[in-house]
Automatic annotation (TrEMBL):
Source taxonomy: Bacteria, Pseudomonadati, Pseudomonadota, Betaproteobacteria, Nitrosomonadales
Matching Gene3D superfamilies: 3.30.1490.270, 3.40.50.11290
Annotated InterPro entries: ATP-dep_Glu-Cys_Ligase-2, CP_ATPgrasp_2, UCP005522
Top-rank taxon, per record: Bacteria
Name of protein: Circularly permuted type 2 ATP-grasp protein
Length: 471
């Protein structure tokens, strides 16, 4: 279980010399004045502000919006590296979709003893979904798989995002920005395109409409303009050419959902929702929700509309479920996992709890339902007071936490105030499931802008980079 902390793997340089994949870029970089890079960074910031690519930080002053820092130095991946990542991510999502179908139907994996029955008491397990057959057996139509790197061919899955994964707009806009700022670089490199993602997404969503519908109507449902990811909702809807709707724009009649339009009601077949389960239908979940559609869940259960992602997917992206994904891959697919999990301690087990408490200063501890970098402790960066306070939180409910070694995440050169410097990165490729499972050759690359920081989340000050998969 123990993994030795070592110097981080530098994806660009080895002993001060550029790796083969970065050679042409390093040559270009050495001939580019630092002030030119800084000028391009400022231009990018101005353009992003003009487009409105901001996000709201919950808990801060109402209405305060931030621009996610954009780094003008791309992250490069070789075709063989991408094949490893994409094959591993798609394998994982196939197994997770089969797991979701299983736990809402025959529950074979529970009877086999590979996943504990306690999962049925999980707050994201939705009894309303028991026995419901979703089109194609697809529950997670859009999945974001967070991957970190520690060495040449050492990649680990950090977590699975299956509810309403965000960030794809940055993958697309970062690429557009790089092509605008550095067209000469795209002549040096054969970079795989990502612009077709909205088209792929729309085709996948149409493919999971109820059988017999020739031209399915797809909409994207948002909580509204005050949501932190509203820019992304509007952007993706516009890119797909579908209507962006709120709950008040939809209504239920019979066993169907309709959208209000200037030409009268129009039936909706597929709803790509960016709203959490508990808010989608006040008659079935939170009765105080003003964001949802009364009666939507009844139509969904009866097969009158498809929801993407399906209700009840949250039980599969919890950090306590993550531990069991390798077993799911073996159980459902009869394959060995292509990508490994980060070794993980389950604090519900007394011996592992004791180990974590004894080594708290060396580990990363996370709430099983936490996200966005909240509810976690990075032991090596924590003060004695923070360690003591977190210890008490763990002891109050050990099963609410998991712990992992502090991995030496790989670094990429990043433009900071002092010039180019290595900063830690992670990767979130997006896996689409419809008639088949597919991915575009690109991803959201998040970068920790602070020196030494391992926390890449935008809510915690992280930035983004363009990811170049080389043909």
């Amino acid at each position: 279980m123990n993994m030795q902390v070592k110097l981080p793997f530098d994806e660009m340089l080895v002993d001060g010399v550029a790796r083969d994949i970065y050679a042409a870029y390093a040559d270009w970089l050495s001939n580019t004045p630092p002030e030119q890079l800084e000028s391009k960074r400022q231009e990018a910031e101005l353009l992003f502000r003009r487009v409105g690519i901001t996000f709201n930080v919950y808990g801060e002053t109402a209405g305060k919006e931030r621009l996610i820092p954009f780094d003008v130095v791309p992250r490069l991946l070789a075709a063989r590296e991408w094949k490893l990542l994409s094959d591993g991510a798609m394998q994982r999502v196939r197994a997770l979709n089969m797991f979701l179908h299983d736990i809402y139907h025959s529950q074979d994996i529970l009877r086999a003893g590979l996943v504990p029955n306690s999962i049925l008491a999980h707050p994201q397990y939705r009894p309303e979904m028991i026995g419901v057959n979703v089109p194609g057996g697809v529950y997670a139509h859009i999945a974001g798989i967070d991957i970190v790197r520690t060495g040449e061919d050492q990649f680990y899955v950090l977590e699975d995002n299956l509810r309403t994964p965000s960030g794809v707009s940055y993958m697309l806009e970062d690429r557009r920005m790089m092509m605008r700022l550095f067209p000469e670089l795209f002549r040096k490199y054969s970079v795989a395109p990502v612009e077709h993602y909205p088209h792929m997404l729309l085709n996948n969503l149409r493919a999971v409409a109820q059988p017999g519908i020739q031209e399915p109507t797809v909409v994207l449902m948002t909580p509204g303009a005050y949501n932190s990811a509203y820019f992304e909702h509007a952007f993706i809807a516009q890119q797909m050419g579908v209507e962006l709707v709120e709950g008040q724009d939809l209504f239920v009649r019979g066993n169907a959902v309709y959208m209000r339009t200037t030409e009268g009601p129009k039936r909706v077949d597929v709803i790509y929702r960016r709203i959490d389960d508990e808010f989608i239908d006040p008659l079935n979940f939170n009765p105080d929700s003003m964001l949802g559609v009364p009666g939507l869940m009844t139509v969904y259960r009866n097969g009158g509309v498809t929801l993407a992602n399906a209700v009840g997917t949250g039980v599969a992206d919890d950090k306590s479920t993550y531990i069991h994904v390798p077993a799911m891959i073996r159980f459902y697919l009869g394959e060995e996992p292509i990508l490994n999990n980060v070794p993980t301690y389950q604090l519900s087990k007394p011996d592992e709890l004791q180990y974590v408490l004894d080594h708290l200063a060396e580990l990363v501890v996370k709430e099983v339902q936490g996200s966005g970098g909240y509810g976690m402790l990075v032991g090596p960066a924590a003060s004695r007071k923070e360690l003591d306070e977190f210890r008490l939180r763990i002891l109050s409910c050990p099963s609410n936490y998991i712990a992992q070694p502090t991995l030496a995440l790989s670094t990429c050169p990043t433009l900071v105030a002092q010039g180019l410097a290595p900063r830690h990165v992670d990767l979130r490729p997006f896996v689409l499931s419809g008639k088949s499972v597919s991915m575009v050759p690109g991803a959201l690359c998040r970068v920790a802008m602070k020196e030494g920081s391992l926390v890449v989340n935008s809510s915690q000050g992280g930035g983004t980079k363009d990811t170049w998969v080389l043909n």
